[in-house]
Amino acid sequence: MENGNVLGSYSDMLAKHKLADAQAEQEAKAKAVKREATARENAKDLGCTLEEYKEHFGPMLSAGFDKGRLDVWYSDSSSTSVNTYGKHIQYVLHLVGRGKNGKRVYVSVYEYSNRPGDYQIDVMNAPNE
User: Measured in whole angstroms, how far is the alpha carbon of residue 60 from the centre of its chain?
Assistant: First the structure.
């Protein structure tokens, strides 16, 4: 009851909640499918495997935007590389894009296997722009 009005029977309310739960579940599944498709596309554009993208280059891409002041990245000019130094691996994400200042910008994000999540970022504006 609300303000003296009957809102509906218990079974009516239960049915409404079940419907809302089912809709929320469908939306969550659709978002997960979309996220997976985006990850696949980004991995393909960057020339890495989906697993590498999910584990390393996806978070590095986010760091490139957050710390590298990137506004847009160009998938046809950006790439990844994985280098081995002794027993450690260096992951490098090379991004070419447009910075928040509107100028063309090059952002390199580095991560070492012995320092996961510790990203070194180099940002360089393109000359003559």
Answer: 9
- Phi, then psi, of 50 in degrees rounded to 5: -60, -40
Rounded to an integer, what distance in angstroms lies between the CA atom of residue 72 and that of residue 104? 10
pLDDT tens sequence across 3-12: 666 666 888 8
Residue with tokens 């979309």: 34
Extract the tokens encoding 101.
């200042």
What pairs with residue 82 in β-bridges?
91
**What is the enclosing helix (H) or strand (E) of 120?**
strand 115-125
For residue 94, give the nearest of 111, 74, 108, 83 by alpha carbon. Answer: 108
DSSP string, 40-90: HHHHHHHTS-HHHIIIIIHHHHHHHHHHH-EEEE-TTT-EEEEEEETTEEE
Q: Where are the alpha helices (DSSP H) in 47-117?
A: 50-52, 58-68
pTM of the model: 0.76
pLDDT tens per residue, range 73-107: 999 999 999 999 889 999 999 999 999 888 999 99
